[in-house]
Amino acid sequence: MYPIHCRDRSGTQPFHLYKLITCTMCYYYLFPNLNVFHHTLDYNLNVVDSNYSAAPDVENETAMTQLCGAINDYDRCYLWNSCCLAALKCCQEQHRNIQTFTPNNNTLYCPPTWDGYGCWNMTPAKTRVFEKCPSYVTDGIWAYSTVGAYKDCTSNGTWWRNPQTQQEWSNYSTCIDIEVSHMVSNVGTQVYGELAESIILLLPACVIFLYFRPLRIQHRIRLHLNLFVSFILTAILFIMWNNLVNRDHIYHHPEETRLHRNTVGCRILNFVISYLRSTNYFCMFIEGYYLYRLLAATFERPKTLVGYYIFSWGFPLIPSLIYATIRGTMFNEKCWVINAEPYEWIMYVPNLLCIMVR
């Protein structure tokens, strides 16, 4: 049973309006750049370029399902619903806070409220109160913050207002843990270092194999070179992924990242990395198969390595293209990094077979 009235940052509202207003606030605060709805004076959300509209009532499953259908993004809808449900829970907490609170007659207090992201209890004047960062607004390094958001209750018993907007204001910028940000950056730097080290060590080996003719003409050395090239290309693509996608995801607003926008370039990069990763296993298998042939048929060495090259670079394209087709038609989101079980086995099985048979 919910209270008759609840408070949000704009003031005290009847509960039936409070839940619509707060759910609308959740949508606009979580997704400021998502132009799917525009709200009306009767507290409905109209779908852009459509005649459909509905009240964002989180207790009305049918209405929320239809509104989420317009967003067409499960992750966003989950975050939005989580925020709307938190607003309803806040309404109950406000009521309990008021019922159980014993004020000091000589002290002013700021009222319990919902600010669009989180819930704040009754707070004495001249006090800064901290709350845990809500999970639905944390992303990337935000989720690791140990500081939390804060809100200031002024000396006259009102919540501090932003001078520019004249709206009650809470500070969520402290949800970003700078130390963890540096740690994540250092981990990224370490990954770059390891990948760069692999490239630096493999390149001279390739140069030596190609420069000295006695080495260059040996089939075994050529297959070594084939494997080294696949390692180098994979490392280069991983460096590109870390720089263009991972760092972008960590240091930019979720709505602005390549991962969230699911850009074509991001998907192509993921596809090429998956393909090259498979070539590593196929090239290793080919090396093992060649050595087996030398032992099994010492005097019957292959005259050409064309078939070996076709197998190590051509066969990985088959599962990679099948997988990419499925991802592009059925799981085409977040640059294909979200697990798409059971279809991930399309890539896993050939790689595992190469290891087992080798």
TrEMBL record:
It holds the Pfam family 7tm_2. Residues 89-179, 187-358 form the G-protein coupled receptors family 2 profile domain. It comes from the Eukaryota. SUPFAM superfamilies: Hormone receptor domain. GO terms for cellular component: plasma membrane. It is found in: Cell membrane. GO terms for molecular function: G protein-coupled peptide receptor activity. Belongs to the G-protein coupled receptor 2 family. This is G-protein coupled receptors family 2 profile 1 domain-containing protein. It comes from Octopus bimaculoides.
